[in-house]
Amino acid sequence: MDVHEPRPDPEGDGGAGAAPPGGLLDLLSVAAVVLDDAGRIVFWSPQADEVFGYTAEEALGRYAARLLVHEEQRDLVVKLFAEVMGTGESWAGAFPIRHKDGSTRLVEFRNMRLVDDLGDIYALGIAADQSTLQRVETDLALSQRLVSQAPIGIALLDTKLRYVLVNPELERINGVSAADHLGRYPHDILTSLDVDSIESAMRRVLLAGTPLIDQHTVGRTLADPDHDHAWSVSHYRLEDSGGRVIGVANSVIDVSERHRAAAEADRARHRLTMIADASARVGTTLEVEHTAQELVKVAVPDLADIASVDVLDAAASALRRCSPAEGPKLFRPLAVAAAYPTPAAAALQVVDRAPYGADRLITQCVHTGRPVVAHAGQQDLERIALSADSAAVFAQAGVHSYLAVPLIARNEVLGAFGLLRARNQLPFDEDDVLLAVDLAARAGVAIDNARLYQSVRNTAETLQRSLLPGELPQPTGLNVASFYQPAQASSEIGGDWYDVIPLARDKTALVIGDVMGNGIDAAATMGRLRTATSAFADLDLAPAEVLRHLDKITCGLEHYIATCIYATYDPHTHRCHIANAGHLPPVLTSSGRLPQLLELAPGAPLGVGGVPFHTTAFDLNPGDRIVLYTDGLVETRHQPIDERLNALVRTLEEPRRPLDETCRWLVDALRDTNDHDDVALLIAQATPDVPQRPRPT
User: What is the pLDDT of residue 10?
Assistant: First the structure.
């Protein structure tokens, strides 16, 4: 049999088996000597050669006392021999013998009387060198003391992986007495651990002989069945002095504190990672709903299975501060995210506003401004959900833990950040609360910024639209369409305007302009210019004269300047007169001809002062279109304006669409999605149903 393979167990295999040399008897070199009743040596074992120094040929037939005992001690030996032979009682003790080399050695003896089937009497002496025996006894005593008093768990198992020795520390760790270990297998004792992996590791050690050091395992034993512990386990193969495999030894060290510290460090790193992730991902836009979506996506699935953001309706709809008060609260759901498809998420997705009673946990959260944690039984689920039906859905989905954290910004509670766990079996703990509070704090500021931004934006856009024409008039001889798209940033709303002004004798004034500035002040300036333009239009002035008067007004408007095109159209002559104050040129499209930019006399923007304006005339025949626009349609930060104007002309080469559709189409085709300027667009098309009159000479 290979010495590296576990030796068949005689008891387990049901029979005896040959064993290779080795074991304690070989280590001690125990000798056997038999004397007849006269004291002559009649049997001499091979081990006796080593203990006494004589070979069998030298010893057999000789008197033992004369051969092995010093003369001064022979009488005592003869006396002891006689007592053993006469009484049959055994004698044991240490006795000095004379070695063949002349030295004296202490030998441990055990002597006893033997009787054969003929009644003849013999004396059997079993002997071992005392120094060797004492060394072995010392080693055994030390080993036993170390094992029994070791602060680590130690076990010895045979080649069948049955316990043969367990020290007190392992008794304490496993919560099972040593006696109840013996003869049993690890899977009989360690029922709450990954015992298959443990036994597999021990079998590998038995076969290969290579120790497995510091193998970590986590679980529970009978010593503490309610809490997880961590252990460092090492396995070593045991061999006797002859190399025979006799089993495997285990050492077990409780490293629960180290494991908990490492777990805490991992959780801290994970928490910092999530916070850093939230800092990068939450608040990337100034849109309230988008910010809420960013927050729930950060929380799922690492922190919760389901996350939601609900803001107080008062906070979402007004700029005024909303201090929590007692009573029910009306919430506006903004975002829900789930780690996996679950009906519990749908139960949170309310279409409009959701009224939560004063007894609801989310209401308590915004009332107190503090986190609320609940490990959800049926009663708690009813306080979490909006309705009894929703609570039933939560229960069916396995929701067992709930955490609500207030969204606070500038000392105002805006709403709540809600977290649910279902598949994640761990309840929310203090670390989870701290992490959720950190995430909510960052998100609260971002949501508040978005809320305030949207309010300012709505105000500016409302002002801007209120200053623009409502429903356009239907001028004689023209079909007109307009389009306005505000800037994405509230601070950039306010400068663009257009107008269609009916004049005397069926004529119409077409106006497009852009105040060079932004915000509410620019919008207000635009309103004043539009009002002034309407007033000067009624005077039936030439376009250059209208711009000259507007220039004077603009010079007094707090250093604002504006670009503007003013054109008049006479449907009876199909003649158009136009003047430009620093604005981008219109595009003229005619049937059968390519679109072209109108070449107008240059003019300085309104507000520069002292620069003359010039009127240019051209024909706008039935079917012809003039396209007026502001720079937000074509200007970008990365392309020259000439390229962009050419792109506008090429776009208008496409087959014609209805006027309203053309406006939307031009904006979609040309406006840079990364540009944040507003856009005004006015298109007029001459119609053929107006009686002609001679042009004045």
Answer: 42
